[in-house]
Amino acid sequence: MMEELMYCEGCGAEIQTKEKTKSGFVPRSALDSEHIICQRCFRLKHYNEVQDVEYSDDDYLRMINKISDTNSLVVKIVDIFDFNGSFISGFQRLTGNNPIILIGNKVDLLPKSTNKSKLIHWMKKTASEFGLTVQDVFLASAEKGLGFDIIEKEIEERRNGKDVYVVGCTNVGKSTFINQLINRSSGVKNAITTSYFPGTTLGFIQIPLDRKSNMYDTPGVVNRRQLVHYVSDKDLKVITPKKEIKPKVYQLQDKQTLFFGGFARFDFEKGMKQSFVCYLSND
Ligand SMILES: Nc1nc2c(ncn2[C@@H]2O[C@H](COP(=O)(O)OP(=O)(O)OP(=O)(O)O)[C@@H](O)[C@H]2O)c(=O)[nH]1
Ligand SMILES: [Mg+2]
Questions:
Q1: Nearest-5° angle of CA 131, CA 137, CA 143?
Q2: Residue-level pLDDT, tens digit, the chain, 283 residues
Q3: Which ligand 1 atom is at minimum distance from the Cα of 140?
Q4: Ligand 1 near 147 CB (within 6 A)
């Protein structure tokens, strides 16, 4: 008899009971539980420890590329705090001719004084310059639930009975976004595993929208130019902002340098003594 394939509810990896160090592992005894969560998700959730996986960047691209064969609505999420790093040009090739709405997530990190309409306008312009045709742009905080009244309504109207795929670069908050939607419709919290490590979601996670259609969480596309891939787990925690970023002003003389921890450096090469405004993580 063929065993039915099962997938981890937290990350979408195929469940297996044979190889402890591979994704989707659960001990055989755990197969009877109602909600099956793999060992990696369990560790991430309870100990904030991440286990390496056997997938390559291309494996994720191939998974996302399957969306081009569907007739669906694509919700593309970018991290508004790192728009360029999390945008990924050439994305449309992966999702085919499906209509796209663009969501700038983590808006809670921006200073309250940010002009939101200007930001949306800039996002539309930049998306088009990067060659991405989007139906519309919205701002959200998946963590705080900001912007969801409009987003929920827009997704429902625009999907027109079709499936919805939530896509984007790693760590932009796709799973947090879907958890927010699940929480709003059913009261269930943190259904999908999220973490500040890139590469948390490993496969498609299906969430029923109605009897005929589903929303899918997807693995993040990896952009190796993003610094998150090169810092230690400990440093990643320190540099990831959790609260609204605030300006700090530094006065520099000609030839002085600002060091941002051991992470980045700003050289003032030439000019009169003047102030520089820096927006930094403020936790
Ligand atoms: N400040 C802030 N942080 C957020 C928000 N949404 C998500 N995050 C954080 O961003 C990190 C990544 O969130 P995930 O939901 O795991 O991101 P993902 O896009 O699913 O990542 P992968 O599965 O790795 O592709 C976590 O540390 C979240 O807490 C938000 O609206 N505001
Ligand atoms: Mg995810």
A1: 120
A2: 456 789 999 999 999 999 999 999 999 998 888 889 999 999 999 998 989 999 999 999 999 999 999 999 999 999 998 898 899 878 888 999 999 999 999 999 999 889 999 999 999 999 999 999 999 999 999 999 999 999 999 999 999 999 999 999 999 999 999 999 999 999 999 999 999 999 999 999 999 999 999 999 999 999 988 888 888 888 888 888 889 998 899 999 999 999 988 888 999 999 999 999 998 877 7
A3: 31
A4: no
My answer on whether 127 and 254 are in the same domain is no
Measured CA distances, 169 to 34, 42, 79, 130, 262 (Å): 31, 23, 9, 15, 26
Nearest Cα to Cα of residue 67 among 221, 181, 222? 221
**Is the shortest distance between the CB of 142 and ligand 1 below 6 Å?**
yes
Domain that holds residue 206: 57-227
What is the token pair recorded at 205? 């996670």
Same domain flag for 255 and 216: no
- Find the 205 Cα to ligand 2 centroid distance in Å: 9
* Ligand 1 neighbour 180 (Cβ under 6 A): no
Residue 194, ligand 1, Cβ within 6 A: yes
50 lies in some domain: no
Sign of torsion over alpha carbons 267, 273, 279, 283: positive
Under a CB-based contact definition with an 8 Å cutoff, are residues 215 and 163 in contact?
yes
Residue 149 located in a structural domain: yes
DSSP 34: S
137 and 255 belong to one structural domain = no
In a domain, 263, yes or no: yes
Query: Do residues 217 and 110 both lie within one domain?
Result: yes
Does residue 98 lie in a domain region?
yes
Q: How far apart are CA 141 and CA 243, in angstroms?
A: 12
